[in-house]
Design a protein that fits this description.
The chain has 223 residues and is an alpha/beta fold. It has a single domain, classed as Rossmann fold, CATH 3.40.50.150. Helix content is 36%, strand content 20%. It has a 7-stranded mixed sheet with strand order 3-2-1-4-5-7-6, sandwiched between helices.
């Protein structure tokens, strides 16, 4: 089943009028992000995977508060979230973003260039599980938004690479409300997300909160 509030569609946990009001009084999308948003919905399958205006603002604000030197993003998609996260990088900072879908490479690289971030974003194509160990950096911020069944493995792979006081943020942790299903009836992805949430909740090495923005962000701060 999908969790709905007042018959809202999956992933829409806030009334449209309230969300529109919030967006009206929030930082506007840049022209690059507007174009990326529009092109993703017009040209790419499953555009609901895009972070979008609301969540993009949240990620940009978190990044600006953290002021990271090194960011790791697992799951580039069309580049929206990476461009948002890169807004908080300090001077000489770098965002490393990994995706397995080479069909989007031209689009992603084009928007990275259009955003003026070519020198600040390292874009990797391939399996994140094999690529992550090759990146010899200590991260201030990690954003996980890739295949759900591997969330726990990504977390374990990056944990020792995150500095004390650094953050690991995972997207889609409400999974359109399906995390409320009976565990015995959960599909594979829902069970993986639910298990990830339990893993973070039981990890004494982090402080954490589940933020119900869009499809849910699990925010973990390494002690």
């Amino acid at each position: 089943m999908y969790f709905r509030i007042n018959n809202l569609a999956p992933m829409e946990f806030i009334e449209e009028k309230i969300e529109n009001y919030a967006l009206a009084f929030s930082q506007a999308e840049s022209e690059v992000l507007k174009k990326l948003n529009r092109d993703t919905h017009a040209k790419v399958m499953m555009p609901r995977m895009l972070s979008g205006h609301m969540q993009g603002n949240v990620l940009a604000m978190f990044s600006k508060m953290i002021q990271p030197k090194q960011i790791l993003e697992i799951g580039t998609y069309t580049g929206y979230s990476g461009i948002c996260l890169a807004q908080g990088l300090i001077e000489n900072g770098t965002l490393h973003t990994i995706d397995i879908n080479d069909e989007l490479e031209k689009m992603v690289r084009g928007f990275i260039e259009e955003a003026g971030l070519t020198d600040r974003i390292n874009y990797y194509l391939g399996n994140a599980i094999t690529i992550i160990p090759t990146i010899k950096e200590t991260f201030d911020l990690v954003f996980i938004d890739a295949d759900k069944k591997n969330y726990a493995e990504y977390y374990d792979l990056v944990f020792d690479k995150v500095r004390s006081g650094g953050y690991i943020i995972a997207d889609n942790v409400l999974w359109s409300g399906k995390v409320l299903d009976d565990e015995a009836k959960m599909d594979v992805d829902t069970k993986a997300i639910h298990d990830y949430n339990k893993k973070i909740h039981n990890d004494s090495r982090v402080e954490h909160m589940l933020l119900p923005v869009r499809d849910g962000l699990m925010i973990a701060r390494k002690k």
